[in-house]
């Protein structure tokens, strides 16, 4: 119980209430002592009135009056003259004098604590003002034994009452905390446990119901997180299914392309100059398709294979990509340009670099075709301080807001109607595999530019 939130709250509440009662206890005891002494002064004043009523006070009556007042003598000051009204032998010398007329609260507290901790009784003189203006000053002499006993008894009663109030207050707060905080928190924990058993089930997502603001914020945050996680798990499941389908399709497609590859071997021996010029490009395209099928890329199910890094001539790869895109452009008014130094070499996997640039150029071409306006796609390459930098730019209409928000996310960052949004996700993954970074440099009415940064440092797995 004491390891729970409500149990610890119960203990802390009891401690704090007791601390508050202790702070109240000290001035209460000081006030009790002051009232006790003022009562003795009033009794002594009443006893002195009997002495004023007659000239000769019988010794027995005087002793009884002093006994009832609880003092040894009474001195009354009237008209600037001090008069001993009642007296009896003192058992010892007076040790301390207390003047209640001008005592401050601090002095009363200190005197009270001194009286309580005093190990023995002492004879004291108490000075005060007579009630009902019956004189200028009244003095009595008394022992502190009865005063100390009364103060201790009063203090014990106060402490006992404080303990009862503390326990009762803590218990009520304990019940309130369990009702207002602990029970809702346990409800949230229960929702989390049930959701963890089947996170794909949207019916187990928490529905915020708390009335306490902080708990409501926690429930809202949990509901948002569970909703996003459920959607991500469903997306992962769909990607896994897609991966299985791609694996099966790639198996059959590989066999078809392998047969086609056998025919291209014969085409290479043709003496037709046009066929001789186009045959190597056809062979390379089919070989690349076979390699892609053999890698069995299943996005969302399996990671891309690690790149096999070699020094690659960027201009040659860019020319090959742009030449392949020329055929896809057809009659569209789109121009392709390469601004790459002819001898620029960078460290990359040639096949994956070709796929990276092909995806980016294809996306740009599809965006420009959709505008039905003249367009231009430019691939630039240059060397930075510690990176090779490749830019793919177009003068198209720019990316819509939704595409910008979900950039590089599969099935969410598509721009074209019916597009899957896998292109940029694949490109981003391939670039990260090289230790680089793909960023959207700019997009807007003037066009869109993607920038690729590949590190110059040696990367593990590089072939030398």
TrEMBL record:
Catalytic activity reported: ATP + protein L-histidine = ADP + protein N-phospho-L-histidine
A Pfam family matched in the record: HisKA
GO molecular function ontology, one term from the record: phosphorelay sensor kinase activity
EC id: 2.7.13.3
SUPFAM superfamilies (alphabetical): ATPase domain of HSP90 chaperone/DNA topoisomerase II/histidine kinase, Homodimeric domain of signal transducing histidine kinase
Annotated Histidine kinase domain residues: 248-458
Transmembrane segments: 9-30, 154-177
Coiled-coil parts of chain: 215-242
Top EC category: transferase
Gene3D superfamilies found in the cross-reference section: 1.10.287.130, Histidine kinase-like ATPase, C-terminal domain
Keywords: ATP-binding, Coiled coil, Kinase, Membrane, Nucleotide-binding, Phosphoprotein, Transferase, Transmembrane, Transmembrane helix, Two-component regulatory system
PANTHER family assigned to the protein according to its UniProt record, in alphabetical order: PEROXIDE STRESS-ACTIVATED HISTIDINE KINASE MAK3 (PTHR43065:SF10), SENSOR HISTIDINE KINASE (PTHR43065)
Record's protein name: histidine kinase
């Amino acid at each position: 119980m004491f390891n729970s939130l409500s149990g610890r709250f119960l203990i802390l509440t009891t401690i704090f209430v007791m601390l508050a009662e202790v702070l109240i206890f000290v001035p209460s005891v000081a006030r009790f002592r002051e009232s006790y002494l003022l009562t003795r002064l009033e009794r002594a004043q009443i006893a002195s009135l009997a002495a004023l009523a007659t000239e000769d006070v019988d010794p027995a009556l005087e002793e009884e009056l002093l006994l009832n007042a609880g003092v040894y003598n009474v001195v009354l000051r009237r008209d600037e003259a001090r008069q001993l009204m009642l007296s009896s032998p003192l058992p010892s010398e007076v040790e301390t004098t207390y003047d209640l007329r001008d005592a401050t609260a601090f002095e009363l507290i200190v005197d009270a604590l001194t009286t309580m901790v005093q190990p023995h009784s002492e004879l004291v003189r108490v000075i005060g003002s007579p009630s009902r203006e019956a004189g200028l000053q009244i003095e009595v002499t008394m022992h502190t034994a009865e005063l100390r006993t009364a103060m201790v008894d009063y203090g014990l009663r106060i402490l006992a009452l404080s303990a009862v109030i503390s326990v009762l207050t803590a218990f009520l707060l304990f019940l309130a905390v369990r009702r207002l905080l602990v029970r809702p928190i346990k409800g949230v924990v229960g929702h989390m446990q049930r959701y963890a058993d089947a996170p794909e089930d949207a019916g187990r997502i928490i529905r915020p119901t708390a009335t306490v603001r902080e708990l409501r914020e926690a429930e809202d945050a949990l509901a948002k997180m569970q909703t996003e996680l459920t959607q991500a798990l469903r997306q992962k499941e769909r990607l896994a299914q897609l991966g299985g389908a791609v694996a099966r399709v790639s198996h059959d497609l590989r066999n078809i392309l392998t047969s086609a590859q056998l025919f291209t071997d014969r085409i290479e021996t043709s003496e037709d100059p046009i066929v001789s010029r186009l045959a190597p490009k056809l062979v390379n395209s089919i070989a690349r398709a076979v390699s892609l099928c053999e890698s069995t890329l299943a996005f969302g199910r399996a990671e891309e294979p690690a790149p096999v890094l070699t020094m690659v001539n960027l201009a040659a790869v860019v020319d090959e990509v742009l030449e392949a895109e020329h055929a896809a452009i057809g009659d569209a008014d789109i121009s392709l340009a390469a601004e790459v130094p002819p001898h620029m070499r960078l460290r990359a996997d040639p096949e994956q670099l070709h796929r990276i640039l092909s995806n980016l150029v294809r996306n740009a071409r599809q965006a420009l075709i959709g505008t039905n306006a003249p367009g231009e796609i430019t691939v630039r390459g240059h060397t930075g301080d510690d990176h090779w930098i490749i830019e793919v730019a177009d003068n198209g209409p720019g990316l819509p807001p939704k595409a910008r928000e979900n950039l590089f996310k599969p099935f969410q960052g598509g721009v074209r109607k019916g597009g899957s949004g896998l292109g940029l996700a694949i490109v981003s993954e391939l670039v990260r595999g090289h230790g680089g970074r793909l960023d959207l440099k700019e997009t807007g009415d003037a066009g869109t530019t993607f920038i690729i940064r590949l590190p110059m440092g040696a990367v593990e797995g590089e072939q030398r």
